[in-house]
Amino acid sequence: xxxxxxxxxxxxxxxxxxxxxxxxxxxxxxxxxxxxxxxxxxxxxxxxxxxxxxxxxxxxxxxxxxxxxxxxxxxxxxxxxxxxxxxxxxxxxxxxxxxxxxxxxxxxxxxxxxxxxxxxxxxxxxxxxxxxxxxxxxxxxxxxxxxxxxxxxxxxxxxxxxxxxxxxxxxxxxxxxxxxxxxxxxxxxxxxxxxxxxxxxxxxxxxxxxxxxx
Length: 214
Prior knowledge:
- This is DNA-binding transcriptional regulator, AcrR family.
- Keywords: DNA-binding, Transcription, Transcription regulation.
- Residues 40-59 bind DNA.
- GO terms for molecular function: DNA-binding transcription factor activity; transcription cis-regulatory region binding.
- The chain is mainly α.
- It has 2 domains: 10-59, Arc Repressor Mutant, subunit A (Orthogonal Bundle); 74-213, Tetracycline Repressor, domain 2 (Orthogonal Bundle), CATH 1.10.357.
- It contains 8 helices and no strands.
- It has helices spanning 18-34, 41-48, 62-86, 94-115, 117-123, 146-159, 171-188, 196-213.
- The longest helix is centred in the middle third of the chain and has 25 residues, at 62-86.
């Protein structure tokens, strides 16, 4: 039956695997525009052009869809961090290289929050804790989650002699808390009105503080 009124035609069949991916992409776009609250099964099916009941073949309920979107958004955070690290110029000095890779982790994290606030909020909209983020769907191209990328960068500081081994345990929690706290203040808090130059400077100063603190 032809669609009327400019609506997308409804499809009740997809090639194997396509429907789940179509729904996930639709839900990611909803999250991009409105954060986790915008991820609703009916809206996702409408975006994908299928009847509402079709979603239940792949997602038991709204929470299942939101969990999958959170994982996919987390993977995008990781890929942005990886891209920031990949852009670091080569350095002959191992210490300088390790330091640059560590700073790139925080810079990429903050950049994603600024560029994709809806997806950033959704990435960290988790049911209780971060244990599910170890799944491959929350990882970037290297197979590592944002938290694992941070841990790897900290290990690099130890290897380069910039971080004492006895100060390494738990350092990721301190670094993550500081950068994530700034990200939230910049996108949802009293710092959201800062000029882009001030935003960038604030991020670099926080990373400076973390380096000194650890």
